[in-house]
Write a structure and sequence with these properties.
The protein is mainly α and 284 residues long. It has one domain (19-282). Helices cover 80% and strands 0% of the residues. The chain contains 12 helices and no strands. The chain has helices at 2-39, 47-63, 70-83, 87-116, 124-136, 138-148, 155-163, 168-195, 202-218, 227-238, 243-271, 274-282. Helix 2 runs antiparallel to helix 3 (70-83). The radius of gyration is 20 Å and the shape is globular. This is Membrane protein. Belongs to the UPF0104 family. It comes from Thermococcus eurythermalis.
């Protein structure tokens, strides 16, 4: 009996370690996506720098309200302060990343919601309309963004930003990396459910992943603390998990995506020149 318990513990630890690996692999893919989008504007930065900027951004997201907000500003300032990239270019590339990311996200939202609730999938309509307007009015969108951030670029720099939309390599790598990130997100949930001894179908996990994304964006508390956990436990219970197992999965997931990511980002801020960027961020 003791041998059997030990085997279960080893299997659970193995699944958990793999889940952690999928998370950091996702961060690396975010860095790779950003690198190719930046390269599309003529800026080529080491992927190591971009990986650190993403980790630091995750830390800021986790300690500021409306997560996914403050971290983006830190990323902009990171490459502008430490690498001399014009703020307007860094801002546009991050926005463009989000546009590329929206393609696989909408596919996931469609799969997740259509599997359970067809009417909720109508939320895709305004999102798709907004992205289409940005795409069709790309030059005007760039002008508005530069004005918003009060950045003056040369005609050559503006031309590089405008041409980003037609950069095949940046678009291909960006969409592929974004798609792989969401595959890894579902894979992480799968590994965590296996770690607690559950077999959950992929469509169900896609739905849970979509809910996790929506909660993270909509939550107004720092890092979505309280809201994300409660929402995920409720969602997992809704799809058939017992409350105890749902709590176990959420605790493991949040330990990776909140605790470990925060510690990693803080370490980067303290050791890789992030203090200057952090001071600049707080002054804004």
């Amino acid at each position: 009996m003791l041998a059997g318990i030990q085997q279960v513990r080893c299997a659970s630890l193995r699944y958990f370690i793999l889940a952690v690996a999928t998370y950091y692999l996702s961060v690396l893919l975010f860095a790779l996506r950003w690198k190719y989008v930046l390269r599309g504007t003529g800026v080529d930065l080491p992927i190591n720098d971009l990986f650190k900027a993403n980790l630091a951004g995750l830390f800021v997201n986790n300690i500021t309200p409306m997560s996914r907000g403050g971290g983006e500003f830190l990323r902009m300032l990171w490459i502008s302060r430490l690498r001399g990239v014009p703020l307007g270019i860094s801002a546009i590339t991050i926005i463009y990343e989000r546009i590329l990311e929206s393609i696989p996200v909408m596919v996931m939202v469609a799969v997740g919601f259509l599997y359970f609730a067809t009417s909720e999938s109508l939320v895709l309509v305004p999102l798709l309309a907004g992205l289409l307007i940005i795409w069709l009015k790309w030059e005007r969108f760039i002008e508005l963004t530069l004005r918003l951030f009060r950045v003056n670029l040369s005609d050559e720099e503006k031309a590089r930003l405008i041409s980003l939309r037609s950069c095949g390599t940046a678009n291909l790598v960006g969409i592929t990396a974004s798609s792989l990130v969401w595959v890894l997100d579902v894979a992480r949930l799968k590994l965590l459910t296996l770690a607690v001894g559950l077999e959950v179908s992929i469509p169900v996990l896609v739905f849970v992943s979509v809910v996790n994304l929506v909660l993270g964006i909509a939550a107004f508390t720092p890092g979505g603390v309280g809201i994300v956990e409660g929402g995920l436990v409720g969602t997992l219970t809704y799809v058939g998990l017992s409350p105890a197992l749902a709590v176990s999965v959420v605790v493991l997931e949040r330990f990776i995506s909140y605790v470990l990511s925060s510690l990693s980002g803080l370490a980067v801020l303290l050791t890789s020149g992030g203090r200057e960027v952090w001071r600049a961020l707080k002054s804004r």
